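job 3f2a | input accepted
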Amino acid sequence: MKSGRLLLALFLVLAVLVWVADSVIAALFFYDAPFLDLLILRVPQHELYTRVAAGVLILLFGLWVVRLDERQRRHNARLEHINHILEALRQINQLLPREKDRGRLLQAICTSLVETGGYRAAWLTLMGPDERTEHIFQAGWGADFAPLREALQRGDWPRCAQEVLSQAHPVVFSGPAASCGDCALVRVRCEGQAMAVRLAYAAKNYGILAVVLGNAWDVDDHERALFAEVADDIAFVLYDREREEQQRQLDEALRRERDFSASLVEASPTFFVAIGTVDGRVRLMNPAMLQALGYTREEVQDAPYLETFVPEEDRPALAEIFRQLSQPGAKTFNLNRVRAKDGRELLVEWHGVPVTNASGAVEYFFGVGLDVTERQRAEAERERMIAQLQRALAEVKTLSGLLPICASCKKIRTDQGYWVQLERYISEHSSATFTHGICPECAKKLYAEFYDEADEGQP
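job 3f2a | predicted structure (459 res):
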């Protein structure tokens, strides 16, 4: 504006100089009259018309030049303003991938928008899942921002902020409206134009970015587009950092679960073995199984399971189980022998399940085994003893029934109808055996001549 007035004054001086020059020429060449008379007092009528017309033309040209100069200055100022915004955008784009701390990143964004000269002040607020304020960042406000910060922390959002959250594009505000009332923004610096946009990505509102303009012209579509681009970049980074944090937490939870599972496998007395689906080689074997088989971890790693640990006659049946476990969702239960390093054979009860990768293909199958060798041996011994007892019990029952016996010779009739000696029958149906002797009565009857009366009472 000052330069425009100066230009207009110069053109006014030029018009006066043209008037004076025309008076000098008229006094020297065309009229026989004093210079002062031709300059002011007695100007001929046609000269007056000429001089006035020339002065008006000069002043009009001067006004056009001043207007053109103002437009050029405004254009240059706007270009400079856009360049400042582009510089801020460049700095922000450099910060986004480099700064990992979210708080420092958002504060640096506000600072860049102000320090590059693009805007007079800036503030950014982040919302939580319940749309309450979680964090507030600002630059260019100083202590004047305290009322707005307190209002935002209380959840007292300005009307303009509520309007921004409902709009997908930047919203421009020109001074406080009548509906603002005692809004904290009015008490801060709401004079002039301000612009705000929501930070949204993937259907989620992360917060609001707002700036106060330091110029006197209206915001054009180009500036709106640049501001929207800044907001989109910030929202995407917030979304990406949120997703990274969620992934980090998920990875941490998976790591803890994996460590817990690994500790169970390592400490469990049960056998654990992982076998590759394609090559049938050992991927993992826990200490309990290694100790029982007499191997070290290095000896079993990548060893062919069937050839190393399974007796040859059991391999076809176990290969069929491996084939079943190569199908997703399969589950198997089997009992087979496992060969130890020293040649011993353990009887193991196995539960098998396949393990798939991210694409759903079976990568290896996992077997959980229980050594039942001693249990089977104990069960066999128990069955043998039960059978022995059952046979003894059957024999006892045979002797405990009614026995048909001859009243004279004392022979016993068998189930087949034969009469057999008493001692023979008892020997065949029990574990009793007989030795023979003669009682005194029978001896006296059979061998009376040899019987000694003196020995009658002796056994």
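job 3f2a | The chain is about 50% helix and 15% strand.
job 3f2a | closed
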